[in-house]
Amino acid sequence: MYRFAFYEEPILNELRSAKIHEKIETGLLPKSLQRKKKIKIPNLDETQIIRHFHRLSQMNYGIDSGFYPLGSCTMKYNPKICEEIANWDSFAGTHPDMDVSLIQGNLEIIFELERMLCEITGMDYFTLQPAAGAQGEFVGMLLTRAYHESKNDADRIEVIIPDTAHGTNPASASMAGYKLTEIPSTKDGTVDLKVLEKTLSEKTACFMLTNPNTLGIFESDICEIQKMVHDAGALLYYDGANMNANLGEARPGDMGFDIVHLNLHKTFATPHGGGGPGSGPVGVKTKLEKFLPVPIISKKKDGTYIFDYDAPESIGKIKGFYGNFSVLLKAYIYILMMGKNGLKESSEIAVLNSNYMKKKILDSGKYTMPYKDLRKHEFVLSCEQLKQKKDIRAMDVAKRLLDHGLHPPTIYFPLIVKEALMIEPTESESKKDLDRFIDALIKIAEEKPDIVKGAPTNTPVKRIDEVSATKNPILTWDMI
Amino acid sequence: MKFIPNSSIKKEMLNEIGLNDINDLFSDVPKKLRLKNLDLPNGLSQIETTKKLRQIACRNRSYNEIVCFLGGGIKPHYIPSAVKSILSRSEFYTSYTPYQSEASQGFLQAMFEYQSMIAELTAMDISNASLYDGITALGEAALMCSRINKRKKFVIPNNISWQKKSVLKNYTKGAGIEIIEVPFDKKSGKIDLDALNKSVDENTSGVYIENPNFFGVFEDDVEQINKIVKTADSLFVVGIDPVSLGICKSPGDYGADIVIGEGRALGIPMDFGGISLGLFSCKKEYLRNMPGRVIGLTKDADGKRAFCMTLQTREQHIRRARATSNICTNEGLCSLAATAYLSWLGSNGLQDLSKINFEQGQKLAKKILSVNGFSIIFTGSHFNEFVIKCSKNPKQINSKLLKKGIQGGLILEEFPDLENCMLFGITELHTDLDIERLVSALKEVA
Question: B302 and A321 in contact by Cβ < 8 A?
Answer without folding.
Answer: no
